[in-house]
Amino acid sequence: MDFDKYCIDRPKHVRLADWKTDDKGKLTKEKAEALMAELQGKLLDLQERLYAENQRSLLVILQARDAGGKDGTIKHVMSGLNPLGVSVVPFKVPNELEAAHDFLWRVHAVAPRKGQVTIFNRSHYEDILVPTVHGLADKEVIDKRYRHVRHFEELLADSGTRILKFYLHISKEEQRQRLQERLDDPEKHWKFNPGDLKERALWDEYTTVYERILSETSSSFAPWYVIPADRKWYRNYLIASVLVQTLESMDLKYPRIAEGIEHITIE
């Protein structure tokens, strides 16, 4: 399948309305779920090669609106990976220590080391998104943050980190249904945050900022993918496919064995 239509690999003017939230390609749910087992097997093998090579790393960034499916993506796409080589970092409101530093300080500290896969559940983009929508920082500060983010991601890429950024694109109606499900199911009450409704009321404002983020921070070394996410099964299939495609393109190698090791016999 051609994933280029979902990829923004250079600065360009982005309109989220140009991407369907309920796209399913030419797949059925049954076919996609059958393919997922093969993809997860490939992911595990590629992760092992990345870990063994210990020269490069992978950073996966997940951004979405509330109920957009970040947790579900991690659960269903990444669950088959070896925990020894994976870390998941959730980003919340900066604590007192984090707020006393520049906004990228806490991010750089948890970037993946060589051989590792790190998944950001939200990310440094929250420090552009929320302050812009809520007017918590002036335009000059926000504009500088766009520049700092581009340079930061370039630094990571130059240091051997492959970066993939996924915007999980859901419709307003799909978000309404998912939030309502959290209210209707007692076992999901813990997921519901009344503050999500206040953010939902700012849907258009968030759309505008996300469009600027996608437009200005897409690059060949840190591309954004706009993932149609109304259908969870297609979201999972797409992200798993892009991960496999990217890791395969890195041509990961196992380290050379020590000379003469093939002649050793364990007594």
UniProtKB/TrEMBL annotation:
SUPFAM superfamilies: P-loop containing nucleoside triphosphate hydrolases
Domain named Polyphosphate kinase-2-related: residues: 27-252
GO process terms (BP): polyphosphate metabolic process
UniProt GO molecular function: polyphosphate kinase activity
InterPro entries: P-loop_NTPase, Polyphosphate_phosphotransfera, PPK2-rel_1, PPK2-related
Transferase keyword on record: yes
Oxidoreductase recorded as keyword: no
Assigned keywords, A-Z: Coiled coil, Kinase, Transferase
Coiled-coil region: 29-56
PANTHER family: POLYPHOSPHATE:AMP PHOSPHOTRANSFERASE, POLYPHOSPHATE:AMP PHOSPHOTRANSFERASE-RELATED
Name the record gives this protein: Polyphosphate kinase
Organism: Deinococcus cellulosilyticus (strain DSM 18568 / NBRC 106333 / KACC 11606 / 5516J-15)
